[in-house]
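Researcher: Sequence of LysR family transcriptional regulator follows. Predict its structure.
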Amino acid sequence: MPLSSRVPDIGALELLLAVARLGSVGRAAAELGVSQPAASARIRGMERQIGVALLERSPRGSRPTEAGLLVVEWARNVVEAAQALDAGIDALRGRRDARLVVVASLTVAEYLMPGWLLALNKASPDTAVTLRTANSADVAAHVLAGDADLGFVEGSGTPPGLAGAVVAADRLVVVVAPEHPWARRRRPVTAAELAATPLVLREPGSGTREVLDQALAPHGGTAPPRLELASSTALKAAAMTGAGPVCLSELAVVEELATRRLVAVPVEGLDLHRPLRAVWPVGRRPAGPARLLLGLTREPVRRG
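Model: Prediction complete. Tokens:
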């Protein structure tokens, strides 16, 4: 049931308790950081609100009336309960502020997030982080639904309903096994040739697939894929077994290219650079650990 209009607010009850304890409105006012006239006016307003006199005033100070003593006891219970509530809320806020849920596209999660989270741990060691992975379309859906404090996506633009900031740059590369004919050719593959070739691709909804589809659209569009796989690891394995050309992030193939387990194929007339973005709901700028992580991930856009 709603509170009666005769119940004073917590601040007024705290003032009454201070007067009862200190024996003086002036001393109570000084302790609570208000002026004596303001404290006196507040006590009088509380007496009018309740409908009884609460204090007996004399040149020696103020003490509760008989009714005032009852109100003081009741007020003490109310103020102690309010203090417990305030402490509990602070504890809840502390636990909330010490938790961070991040959902990231696979490329970002596998190749960039470990370093970023290590930096976050050094800056805020008490922050507990949950990292989930999904393709870029699902990342956007999770962030919009409020399932994550911060998301990271690949792709040419910021998903609808989200605001974002570019935190890094990436480039897609076409790679094949050393035995593939493209590994030995002397001239680059053309964009039209790539568009006409069945590739091993990420699934629809991934940022990698979106960028490649958009880049090849002016050249006839992407051919029906030879295979669709859901991770960079699976794409690399397929390429190394000779399943066909693969297009994926250069971040994912640094080691394989260095050891010649895969060979990069130059592609003529195709820009496969893409930004990597942090995203959050429009109108809700990241705060707390999410804001700290965002600051740690920001870096100049690199061109490979």
